[in-house]
Amino acid sequence: xxTDQPVIKVAILGASGYTAAELIRxxxxxxxxxxxxxxxxxDAEKNLSxxxxxxxxxxxxxxxxxxxxxxxxxxxQCAFACLPHGKSMVALPHLLDRGLRAVDLSADYRLTDPNxxxxxxxxxxxxxxxxxxxxxxxxxxYGEELPTATLVANPGCYPQGAILGLAPxxxxxxxxxxxxxxxxxxxxxxxxxxPTTATHFPECNESIGAYSVGRHRHTPEIEQALTAIAGTxxxxxxxxxxxxxxxxxxxxxxxTSSRRPAQDKLLELYRDFYHDTPFVRVVEHLxxxxxTLYTNFVDVTVRIVRNRIIVFAALDNLVRGASGAAVQNxxxxxxxxxxxxxx
Amino acid sequence: xxTDQPVIKVAILGASGYTAAELIRxxxxxxxxxxxxxxxxxDAEKNLSxxxxxxxxxxxxxxxxxxxxxxxxxxxQCAFACLPHGKSMVALPHLLDRGLRAVDLSADYRLTDPNxxxxxxxxxxxxxxxxxxxxxxxxxxYGEELPTATLVANPGCYPQGAILGLAPxxxxxxxxxxxxxxxxxxxxxxxxxxPTTATHFPECNESIGAYSVGRHRHTPEIEQALTAIAGTxxxxxxxxxxxxxxxxxxxxxxxTSSRRPAQDKLLELYRDFYHDTPFVRVVEHLxxxxxTLYTNFVDVTVRIVRNRIIVFAALDNLVRGASGAAVQNxxxxxxxxxxxxxx
Amino acid sequence: xxTDQPVIKVAILGASGYTAAELIRxxxxxxxxxxxxxxxxxDAEKNLSxxxxxxxxxxxxxxxxxxxxxxxxxxxQCAFACLPHGKSMVALPHLLDRGLRAVDLSADYRLTDPNxxxxxxxxxxxxxxxxxxxxxxxxxxYGEELPTATLVANPGCYPQGAILGLAPxxxxxxxxxxxxxxxxxxxxxxxxxxPTTATHFPECNESIGAYSVGRHRHTPEIEQALTAIAGTxxxxxxxxxxxxxxxxxxxxxxxTSSRRPAQDKLLELYRDFYHDTPFVRVVEHLxxxxxTLYTNFVDVTVRIVRNRIIVFAALDNLVRGASGAAVQNxxxxxxxxxxxxxx
Amino acid sequence: xxTDQPVIKVAILGASGYTAAELIRxxxxxxxxxxxxxxxxxDAEKNLSxxxxxxxxxxxxxxxxxxxxxxxxxxxQCAFACLPHGKSMVALPHLLDRGLRAVDLSADYRLTDPNxxxxxxxxxxxxxxxxxxxxxxxxxxYGEELPTATLVANPGCYPQGAILGLAPxxxxxxxxxxxxxxxxxxxxxxxxxxPTTATHFPECNESIGAYSVGRHRHTPEIEQALTAIAGTxxxxxxxxxxxxxxxxxxxxxxxTSSRRPAQDKLLELYRDFYHDTPFVRVVEHLxxxxxTLYTNFVDVTVRIVRNRIIVFAALDNLVRGASGAAVQNxxxxxxxxxxxxxx
Lengths: 343, 343, 343, 343
Known about the structure:
The structure is a homotetramer. In chain A, 31% of the residues lie in helices and 20% in strands. Chain A contains twelve helices and 13 strands. Chain A has helices at 18-27, 48-51, 68-73, 88-97, 114-121, 128-133, 139-142, 157-171, 201-204, 218-230, 263-273, 319-334, and strands at residues 8-13, 33-39, 78-81, 101-104, 135-136, 151-153, 180-186, 209-210, 236-242, 249-256, 280-282, 298-305, 308-315. In chain A, helix 1 (18-27) packs across helix 12 (319-334).
């Protein structure tokens, strides 16, 4: 087991949130990663156990306010940015310019068109140079670009299920690219760790509702990826819902097809498409998010009902939808086994 | 308050389940209803508190195995059937033939076409005579038939949100009747009170998944009602999901329109359509099921996104989706104020 | 039904929180109460539906910032204060001095000893005059003082279960008054509506933990009431826990007894003690909070295990633990049937 | 990392339940364990993914009905019994007599006194020979017996928190051994995977209640262990509660002490006692079960309130309370690092 492989010194930027906690948990299990720094805006000088009690005793490091030089001084080779959007594009350039590699879990480097970024995120992109080099970190689709990538834009939680669920159909030119409706249901960790009325327990518990209808920021990210796969412009109707559970995203995706494929042929298509990938499981049963809880799997199936195709994709938004994908990207970047620390 | 109005003697047939408990709770608050009998298959001779601990001390009646004659001997005037489908059409004919009126909460009298019943429920309909007389008990649409109805088929929980959500659009001939996709999310009481693996707490808690895709029995019921409203054949794609909460159904309904209506015009249309109804609330915010919890309200709104119309309809499946609607029907049947016992 | 009884004009002070919403819901069902004003600090000029979407369409009043004179100008006869502690003793004196009656749901008038108030709430009591007149509003114990009370201090949610659970034992001098351990488990609405880290869904969902160990402010309230019942100084060990559910408190109470009573005798004692009360249900089964959900009941039972007595008391913290008790007090104050609007 | 260490061939007996699924998940991560057989009563010839969809694609073995000879024929060296109580003592003797070692997750070999077993489990113990040799598998207390143990009785979920929480106090002779009250709160997986009314989602969700008061079978197991530690007879009052969450046990333990220790001294005592153990975390904050979710940790703290000591112990009932402890025992039995596959 890889005893002659290197150990990469990594830093977690923005270590206070849920994706950071999940990432630390996974990296502590990784034989080729050593966390040497954790930065924070609001929790400086706190112990990890104060910020994340679940990680008590796991790592003898404090959260710190650290400048780029200090991170470099510690020998950091790879930075994982768990920062809010708008912050990564401020923090990462200094590190990238000094030779570090980075996996950015924010949205800052996902949209290749900076105008789209400005339109959906409400501010101009301030790091066009690195934006142009960023690789969209969906390993099943862009795996070959990862070994040489300097900056990896880790995909959003909703986009992962939507893109992986639709890729075989669009790549096979099987569906009408203007017919796509993505009805997604997410657990509450997807909303982050900052308390709000919407995520206050008695408001969202025992309830389901839609939010950000027609204006969720993952929409252009999904369309960008699907357009690239289809080779033609794809527009989607994306409706996210908040479900009273901690983790998990189920996307129920409706598309129309003029080709009238048979269901077993479709499943075969999916199995072929994901044949060499360890984390996309093409299943015959209807996937529930619970089947993927605390794993890096995306469970996908497909049904034909009354001339429409319905795709179901389930995943854990904190593992596969964020930190697990980040580790998967890290493994690909450094040539480690793709599943390391993730099974 | 109605002191000169009659008190109707009612029986609850099949008093062991969730809809029965909810109905008893509501009727105990009703000044014009007196529960004089509760029948049961499995819990005969038990006290109400043994079967429904929440109702301890509320009603000094036992659950009993009672024949039609015994119910008539007690002076029952109106029977509420909370029986499984297939059982109502066996139990109710004897009572209806002896002059009782009935509200049936099962599916037995909802589909006017007995072939459709046979096809979806797997057995022939055995009471065609009463089926022909049954009124579909959606008071907002069929309210005028209720005062003279002998037998009211209380609508299914999913159909109520779907039908009330789509009625203004179809009545106004505003949408393509073949474009309808209904993505519904339901709490677990919708699955009834019998323990199963799917509803075992650790299986469905912290999870969301679809079920009965393409074959849920509420599909023909929805189509029958929508076809009647549209005046043309309507087909829907209906996908139910199980959400980890007790009560509540949210239906997210996607339709296409060639007419390109404006959103404010649509809301106005909805407000006009439901102007005189006390229980359909046309709201501007996105409704969450929690807003309707333990009430008889259906909260509806509509959004236009990229040339598609999305309708959101939220309700409590045990109140509005079952027992509340039954009481609303009862009120209409006997001329009581529509909201009695329901506010 | 009470057609000749008066209708009392009431105001809700502090209408933004959960207890206010519950109170409004109950009072809208009350034939002898008319809500004529709702005050607020943070939500002035908002419609009720903006603050409490569940109450959409129920009441055509806005939330307002209103001075005492304005409330009096509207003819308010009774004020329900749903204010944070420390605010009621500022707002109520002006109203009480002008002849209004009040039910205070805050803690301000519960502790008769102002030193105890200062010690546990961290500030001096500023309204000793009315404090001296306040009646502790636990109707089962102080019901006879309520018809003449001007100011009723509505009890805390935890104290109600603890006091009602222990009263028969202490009144009967059956237990060691220094042996009492109260292990309580509460739903999250008990923590109020202001978002905090502790009540952020992903923090408290799927988890149980204790909080405020040894320093919860309901401790002196419980001891004051139990001491009055016992006629001797009572000290309790009170440990509250946060349970991932919206509503409900279960108190598991451990006491020792030198008298060795038999369990059936104890149940008989409890039944006798609560014989004339409509809301305390002495049950034989182990009560779960769900049996009391959305009701004003307190379900109590008692078990003897290895020479210790265990009392179980379950209630809905928003109804019985707050707003339901307030309406019960209101009914007693004005001579209405005790159960009105509460069944 | 142990490349020269052996790989032990293991079998899972009774592979259909939750503890089996958790055990398989952990063992698949263990470099020194190879699952070569999974037996079942009800799911014979099913694929693992049919029984545990979460494990889809993880292991290419079917569940089978296998006799002892067949297990031995496969080279099984160690059997993990995830069987109901009463079944392990039938299945294991054949394997033990043929030289296998075993970790039994049922209750069959936990109570050293067969009379106690008969009394609490309602049947005579049928394997006294192996019962006499069984080691109680709580590694923090009996770790030194494990390397030579043939049969390890994996402790119950409740006992682990209770025993580890009380051991330092009893070993230090600091408390009154007759004063112990254990108020425990458990998630629903603790009740197993068979659907029942009590564990039907709409029955236990949004509710908390006690069960098996005074007669839970973990009582004698706790007392046996505590008596051994104290060197004197210990009796406990143990009250379990069902909490609406999947996993987690919090035990709130009340004891009296004549010694009046200081809180910081107590924490120091705990830290010393568990100094060399990797899985008991003595914390200063109040532990919530969520801090231990999906881990093998037991988080313990202690508070002094009004001359009583309160101990809080939190753990994940499926990991630490069952399958994680089993792997920890396995590691000790075979000389692997204690934390292997568990971090």
